[in-house]
Amino acid sequence: MKNNNENTAQQYPGKAQNRHIDRSILLKEAGSSIMLKRIAAAMALILVVFVAWAAYLELDEVAFTTGEMVHEGDEIKLRHMVGGTVTQILVHNSAIVEKGQPLIRLDPDVSRLELESIEGEKMVAEAEKIRLEALINEKTPDFSPVKDPMVRETQAKVYGHIKKALEAEQLVIESQMKQLNNELSLLRQSQASLKRTVDLVQEELTIRRKLESRGLNSRITLLQLEKEYNDALSRLQQVPTNMAKLAERRAELATTLANLRVKASNKWSNELAEVNTRLMALEKKISISSSGIEGLDVKAPVEGIIQDVNVHSAGEIVQPGEVLLSLIPIERPLVAKVRIASKDIGHVQVGQDAVLRITTYDPRRYGVARGKLTSISPSAFVPENREPYYEGVIKLDHNYIDSGDKKFQIFSGMTLTADIKTGTKTLLAYLLKPIHLAKTLAFKER
Question: Mapped to the 3 state alphabet, what secondary structure does the chain carry?
Answer without folding.
Answer: CHHHHHHHHHHCHHHHHHHHHHHHHHHHHHHHHHHHHHHHHHHHHHHHHHHHHHHHCEEEEEEEEEEEEEECCCCEEEECCCCEEEEEECCCCCCEECCCCEEEEECHHHHHHHHHHHHHHHHHHHHHHHHHHHHHHCCCCCCCCCCCHHHHHHHHHHHHHHHHHHHHHHHHHHHHHHHHHHHHHHHHHHHHHHHHHHHHHHHHHHHHHHHHHCCCCCHHHHHHHHHHHHHHHHHHHHHHHHHHHHHHHHHHHHHHHHHHHHHHHHHHHHHHHHHHHHHHHHHHHHHHHHHHHHCCEEECCCCEEEECCCCCCCCCEECCCCEEEEEEECCCCEEEEEEEECCCCCCCCCCCEEEEEECCCCHHHHCCEEEEEEEECCCCECCCCCCCEEEEEEEECCCEEECCCCEEECCCCCEEEEEEEEEEEEHHHHHHHHHHHHHHHCCCCC
